[in-house]
Amino acid sequence: IFLFCTKIFCMSYGLYFHRCFHASPALLARRSNDDPIQLKAPKKGKFVKRNKTTPTQPPVEAPYVPPRVKRAEKFMPDKIIDIFEGMTMVELAKRSGESISTLRNILVNVGEKVDSEFDPLSIDIAELVAMEVGVNARRIHSFEGAEVLPRPPVITVMGHVDHGKTSLLDALRQTSVAAKEAGGITQHLGAFVVGMPSGASITFLDTPGHAAFSAMRARGAAVTDIVVLVVAADDGVMPQTLEAMAHAKAADVPIVVAVSKCDKPAADPERVKMQLAQEGLPLEEIGGDVQVVEVSAINKTGLDKLEEALLLQAELMDLKARVDGSAQAYVVEARLDRGRGPLATAIVKAGTLVSGQHVVVGAEWGKIRAIRDTLGKLTERARPAMPVEIEGLKGLPMAGDDIIVVESEDRARMLSSGRKKKQENDRLTKISEENTVTTQDPSEERVELPIIIKGDVQGTVQAVTDALKSLNSPQVFVNIVHIGVGPVSQSDLDLALACGACIVGFNVRNPPSCLSLAATQANIKIKLHKVIYHLLEDMGNLIVDKAPGTFETHVAGEAHVLNIFELKGRSKAKGDDTKIAGCRVVDGRVSRSSTMRLVRSGEVVFEGSCTSLKREKQDVETVGKGSECGLMLRDYIDFQIGDVIQCLEQINRKPKFISSESGAVRIECY
């Protein structure tokens, strides 16, 4: 009632209070300056009215920074893209990671005119563009619309060294190649066609079994259809047997096991089968799909069963190949002939290789001048699964290179030049990465052994190179400065003289007498070998001699102090009074020039040089075990009876050259 009466009173006098009387006086004082309700628009919380009294500042002009374009690395040796005939520039740009404008500029530089990015490109041009942007290209060929016919199988014979691989092939083709091989072991990759008694023909590849030829075995597994794993019945599973199994599994190639030397008294085929099963090979006897045949090359037993097993496996695989169109081939081996120049042994994988075609082999190119079969007879064309030898190349290719047919000489030159440029860029990139990663402790002494390698064929040169590189050690760096195919020449001698290298020749003829005389006068070593065992042993011993070794302290002798003699009244010229230790040598020998260590109660008291060593009043250099002597140490006279004086010598321990039974070699440092 009081509040109502008060409100009426105020209104009668024209007063209006919009505040509530229950508010505190402090709150009323704080809000006394507020504007009346609904007289002014409320302020927006985010925007503030600009004060007109402050002058407007001009905007600051920031420099324009263009967005950074994400580009792929220029040289990527590990990146591989698939290319095919008729692919467009858009597809190539997606796979290579480059922009279409970049690819268009490259096409202009190589002289190729493309109106639209959707126009088809030839597979050669696509490879050139891929190499220019720094990626590797893998050619994918389509059999669509081509004539596909059955072809003979390509079979690679693999196994441990001296397990009878070549003898088995000799028994199959009625030859005696094994008897003519140096050292009785295979050191080359051979390819030939064998006509079987059933009338079928099979292409065989004979691979070396020595540990140094691992790359050859890998190439044989990469080009083959079936692997014949030869295991000696009297020897069992060995390291190269396991390696051959690994190569076959990596290439996804079926295996047929041939247990050889079953005619020997110590033969145990069942033990071999058990070892293979323990290594994870699924044999037919235990429910697997790997056939096992027991053979003897000497008695020629089991050969018909081996032929039956191989033909059955080939029939199950249903081997077919394209016979028309440009050929695709694989280089098995390459060598340099004095009269015919570079020669490449190849196996045709698809298509037909015709004499007179322009080909690109790896980074080399040429026009096929002649094609010869395994018997050396000239032929005009080579069909799938046929091993041939081609001549007419401008340079020597690498074993394992692919052979592709191109339409013209200009295209062959351009593709070869692009591949050489790509190889050089990859090589320089690899060297720079190795220099970045490799760190050498400055305290360690490491000498360099430069080597020049010459061989009869490209495959053996690579094998010798890999084997010698495996002899690298913390003390000796094996630097391969040059490799080549052919005999030792004057240019090799000049290079060896310039860099102080040793020349290693494998299966090459002796150099002329004038070159040998010049090498002797220039103190250049030329080491020629025909057997890989002897070459690796000789080079291993050379590396051991070249190594600086590790110096270690060795106790050469030990003497016990039995009595002490004191010398007094010496002249000033001879110095102060001194003491002589009378000793008996109980072990080894004591030398005056060596360092002496005095041990008392198991603790080293003094270590220094010997100033005098006498026996029966005579100065001597060495005192042997069981003899008595007197000695003086420099700057030490506090001898006691019962002290032990040890004679210390520095011994240089050289590395060891170790060769295993499988042929693997290494240098072991202490």
Automatic annotation (TrEMBL):
Q: What is this protein called?
A: Translation initiation factor IF-2, mitochondrial
**Domain (Tr-type G) ranges:** 150-320
Where is composition skewed (Basic and acidic residues) in this entry?
A: 423-433
Q: Where in the cell is it found?
A: Mitochondrion
Molecular function via GO: GTP binding; GTPase activity; translation initiation factor activity
For this protein, the record's Gene3D superfamilies field holds: P-loop containing nucleotide triphosphate hydrolases, Translation factors, Translation initiation factor IF- 2, domain 3
**Chain intervals for the UniProt region annotation (Disordered):** 43-62, 415-443
Checking Pfam families in the record gives: EF-G_D2 (PF22042), GTP_EFTU (PF00009), IF-2 (PF11987)
Q: What is its main location?
A: mitochondrion
Return the PROSITE patterns for the record.
Answer: G_TR_2
Q: A single GO CC term, please?
A: mitochondrion
Q: Which organism is it from?
A: Escallonia rubra
